[in-house]
Amino acid sequence: MEWFAFKAGDEYLGIEVQYIHRVVDEVKVTPVPLVPCCHMGLMYYRGEVFDVIHVGSLLGQSERVYNGNPRIILLKWSHKKLALVPDLMVGLIWIDDSKREQTPHAQGEHIVRRITPDEIWSKVSELPYGPHKV
Question: Is residue 132 domain-resident?
Fold first, then answer.
């Protein structure tokens, strides 16, 4: 089965290709107030609005690594949409998924942890929104 791999923080992640709508760059992200730090804002792409999430920040990385206008992974599934900003794009990889195990997969010198869009959506949905008290 084909997976799309990318780096976020200190780990490599893979998402099943069927959920990848497009990989885009040179898009404008409009900031939104009172959202968690991993939520970079909203983007409009070909008639659709996507929430833009920095994956490393979502996973607990304290600092965003990208410079300038990042490449963005657009995900679409079950009437949901997200745009993910990884720290590094790896590309397509093949994972023998005949057993449907969620164990990490060795890809060259890296271990790729498989995740689903629903796992990402769940993590984002659990984050507090609104004014943050320090």
Answer: no
For residue 133, tell me if it sits in a domain: no
Nearest to 30 by CA among 44, 17, 42: 42
What is the rounded CA–CA span in Å between residue 14 and residue 92? Answer: 9
CA–CA distances in Å: residue 108 to residues 21, 39, 64: 26, 31, 25
Judge whether 130 lies within some domain.
no
The residue range of the domain holding 25 is 2-125
Angle 106-111-115 (CA atoms, 0-180°, nearest 5)?
Answer: 105
Could you give the CA distance from residue 85 to residue 64 in angstroms, rounded to a whole number? 10
pTM score, whole prediction: 0.84
Residue 69 to residue 54: CA distance in whole angstroms: 13
Looking up residue 53, the CATH number of its domain turns out to be 2.40.50.180
8 Å CB contact between 84 and 75: yes
Condensed to tens digits (0 to 9), the pLDDT of residues 17-33 reads 999 999 998 889 999 99
Instruction: Report whether 115 contacts 122 (CB < 8 A).
Output: no
* Phi then psi dihedrals of residue 118, to 5 deg: -65, -35
